[in-house]
Specification:
CATH superfamily of one domain: GroES chaperonin
CATH topology of one domain: 10 Kd Chaperonin, Protein Cpn10, Chain O
Structural class: mainly beta
Shape: elongated
Low-confidence stretches: none
CATH architecture of one domain: Roll
Mean pLDDT: 82
Distance between the termini: 86 Å
Number of strands: 8
CATH class of one domain: Mainly Beta
Number of helices: 0
Radius of gyration: 24 Å
Length: about 120
Amino acid sequence: MTIRPLADRVVIKAVEAEETTKSGIILTAAAQEKPSIAEIVAVGPGGMVDGKEVEMTVKVGDKVLISKYAGTDVKVDGVEYSIVKQDDILAVVEEAPAAKKAPEKKPAAKKTAKK
């Protein structure tokens, strides 16, 4: 079964929540926060919404930051999704490009002084 969102709605799947803190403490499921980063699975066509033309600015595969209590949760084929309006998406999360490493400098050859 697939979900095809209508108008300005987007189907998202939550990115796994962190199970440990930065200091290494393991969190129980109850202590974990609802993840606010999700991956877009499907995007509606946009169009006229409440008398205004809505253009969809996100695409399938984008990772986004969403409002904490946004959307409607649904379960399809055992997988949990949320359906949110594009307005509930706060930002697109972009991965930082990998930093280029400077080429390693070889140590200068030792010069021997003639005596």
